[in-house]
User: What shape does this take?
Amino acid sequence: MRAYETVIIVDSEISDEDVDQVMEKLTGIVSDLDGKFVKTEKWGRKKLAYRVKKKTKGNYLLFVFLGDLKLTRELERILKLDDRILKYLTVRLDKYAELNLLNEEEQGDGEGSEEINTEDEDDTQDEDTEEEDTEEEDTEEEEQEKD
Assistant: This one.
């Protein structure tokens, strides 16, 4: 299973009960197609950066789930058909996020798992060069103060 994240903007003029209905509908779809929900969040009502379907505000929802391509296609098909949905975006999370989500799921089931180090070698090299840069700046400042 792959990890996906979907952000949905729901019409702000609908009631909170309708927003909850949308969330329940989507969780039902994911569970029906053998997916697993990892996290759902309501980000609340926010102003849109630009008008979408003649609306300036929307309710933002976040869904993180595990599933396959068939699941995401069906989810997006249903989102297109729902008039309450202004906009949506589904992205596949990288392999490190997938591993972390799977580990969290295993830990939630009571099974132990090892932590996976997701830092790249490039990140540690960047930190080393930053330290060298600050040391060089410090020595330059000391020399200027001596003059």
